[in-house]
Write a structure and sequence with these properties.
571 residues, alpha+beta, Rossmann fold, six-stranded antiparallel β-sheet, six-stranded mixed β-sheet, 19 helices, elongated
């Protein structure tokens, strides 16, 4: 319930605060006093967008504050909790509109986004004015209203769940079908690649070993020359290193006979000569193994060429090539299994199509039964508010085969097109005049008639929950007299289930108010400002009298106004 609304620097409103009560709250006043501005401010609390043009002249920002009592509204409490906002009995919403463009939204003191506010606002308040009239003219909204009336949303949600499953299955099959069209070509390519790598019989590190072997083969003559020269220098040639070292060793031996302290040098020399002999013999053996083999060199070069070609195709290293071969093997396995997968998905798709069709047809049957009940209820309500002999229809047609449209929103099963809402198109039709066939609301209904259709729908759906605060802005358009009196009674009845805020020019409606506010505007210091006043009993009589007679209010008119209010209290 909307408990309090504060508006500051918004349009011609300087600053005002309205404290609303339960039941029927009526706002009245002269045309242009600012009643529509108050509705526009409430629109902002719902999460609607606005511009800096709404800021009062010469002010930097406009501020709208709203206090709601949500202690008994579990829907809002859960939504607030879902947004990470601490749940409290009261909900405070604040909008700040700035010339700088840095508009801000606050929910319970915390900074929020406009999207967060919109998600809450639509559950807090419903405004039946020009905006809702436009929604009612949109046939896409009619199926939701019908399902609300028939309490069919649970069944519709099950249809929607199956629709999502069906959509997922179809998309998977489409993807597999695209893959299957290229499967043979892809499989042939993969087979070729796998066999090419397999025939190569690659081993990790093989390329590095081949490079070393190639270097040796290319430099075989130089290696033979160097190794023979080293062998001869150390051992094989006359006056070789070893021959000279042996002479030195003998000299040291002779010295050590005279000076025994050099005995260790003799032993070290002996050890060095032995090690050097081993080196010389190793060089001789190495040289004997060296041979210039052009055939072997060509073989190594061809193998390296083969490996390099595979690297260009499948990876920069032998390890990457082997990993690629493993991936090929897995993909080939997936391709071989795709036919089985397609067959399984087709069976699952068929079963799901049959299931959703059966459920959607059941939903369609229930909608037709509900449509007849809605027709009778709406016509009864409309007749009571002056639209006698009006015929209302909730027309239901099944979606027929349609190759157009977004496949994510609808799909064809046989000759029917199904959506997440089922197989039905629903459109409300109206015939205000006897003898005329019912036609679309957008082609037949006037503004006043639409307001009364909205009121009829609200009255019928009142006991089915929904938002707690209903605001009527144009419900009195085009009516008067007895019809206005009946509309007032309807609003009063509706206020037993919801908080109702109604802007009206008609005394027949205003007399039913539980709380009555007068909206006026005055010029002060050269500036126009809107003000609001909650009326007491005597002030209400004066306002009702003004609404009855206009500028000249006589005692007779005031007495008539008093009688209207007292009669209402007795009803």
């Amino acid at each position: 319930m909307l408990s309090e609304l504060t508006i500051k620097n918004f349009a011609i409103i300087d600053e005002l605060t309205l404290s609303f009560s339960e039941g029927l709250n009526v706002l009245s006043g002269e045309t242009g006093a600012g009643k529509s501005i108050i509705i526009n401010a409430i629109n902002l609390i719902q999460g609607r967008r606005t511009s800096a043009d709404t800021i009062r002249s010469d002010e930097e920002e406009a501020i709208i504050d709203a206090l709601f009592d949500i202690s008994d509204n579990n829907t809002i409490l859960n939504k607030v909790d879902g947004l990470g906002i601490e749940k409290e009995e009261n909900l405070v919403i604040k909008r700040v509109i700035s010339h700088s463009g840095k508009n801000k939204v606050f929910i319970n003191g915390g900074l929020a986004t406009l999207g967060m506010l919109a998600g809450i606002g639509e559950e807090l308040i419903a405004i039946s004015g020009q905006h809702e009239s436009q929604l009612l003219l949109n046939p896409e909204r009619h199926i939701d209203i019908l399902d609300d009336f028939g309490s069919l949303h649970s069944l519709r949600e099950r249809v929607g769940t199956l629709f999502k499953k069906l959509l997922k299955l179809r998309n998977e099959l489409v993807d597999l079908a695209h893959a299957a069209n290229k499967r043979a070509e892809r499989e042939s390519l993969l087979d070729f690649q796998w066999n090419e790598i397999e025939r190569a019989n690659l081993k990790v590190g093989e390329d590095e070993d081949l490079k070393r072997e190639k270097d040796i083969l290319i430099n075989s003559e130089k290696l033979l020359e160097y190794s023979n020269h080293a062998y001869n220098t150390i051992y094989g040639a006359k006056e070789s290193v070893l021959e000279n070292l042996k002479a030195v060793k003998n000299n040291i031996k002779d010295i050590s006979k005279i000076d025994s302290s050099l005995g260790k040098l003799h032993d070290a020399m002996e050890s060095s000569i032995i090690e050097l002999e081993d080196v010389a013999l190793s060089l001789r053996d190495y040289a004997q193994k060296i041979e210039f083999d052009p055939a072997k060199l060509e073989e190594v070069e061809q193998r390296l060429l083969e490996i390099n070609k595979l690297k260009k195709k499948y990876g920069s290293t032998i390890d990457e090539i082997i990993q690629y071969k493993d991936r090929i093997q897995r993909e080939l396995k997936d391709i071989s299994n795709s036919e089985d997968t397609i067959a399984r998905l087709k069976n699952e798709l068929h079963d799901t199509e049959m299931e959703i069709l059966k459920m959607a047809e059941d939903l369609s049957d229930k909608r037709r039964t509900t449509a007849e009940k809605l027709k009778n209820s709406i016509e009864k309500e409309l007749w009571s508010v002056g639209m006698e002999k009006t015929v209302f229809e909730a027309g239901i047609n099944n979606h027929r085969f349609n190759t157009k449209g977004n496949l994510d929103e609808n799909m064809d099963i046989g000759d029917l097109r199904i959506t997440s809402k089922g197989i039905d198109d629903v459109e409300f039709l109206l015939s205000p005049n006897p003898g005329e066939s019912p036609r679309a609301l957008s082609r037949i209904a006037s503004g006043g008639e639409l307001s009364r259709v909205i009121l009829a729908l609200k009255s019928i759906l009142a006991q089915k929950g929904g938002v707690e605060t209903l605001i009527f802005d144009e419900v009195d358009a085009g009516i008067g007299g007895r019809v206005a009196d009946i509309v007032g009674q309807k609003l009063k009845s509706l206020s037993k289930f919801h908080q109702v805020i109604c802007i009206t020019h008609l005394p027949q409606i205003a007399r039913f108010a539980d709380t009555h506010y007068n909206i006026s505007k005055k010029v002060k210091n050269g500036r126009t400002a809107t003000s609001v006043k909650r009326l007491d009993k005597e002030e209400r009589i004066g306002e009702i009298a003004r609404m009855l007679a206009g500028a000249e209010i006589t005692e007779t008119v005031k007495e008539h106004a008093r009688e209207m209010i007292e009669k209402t209290a007795m009803q």
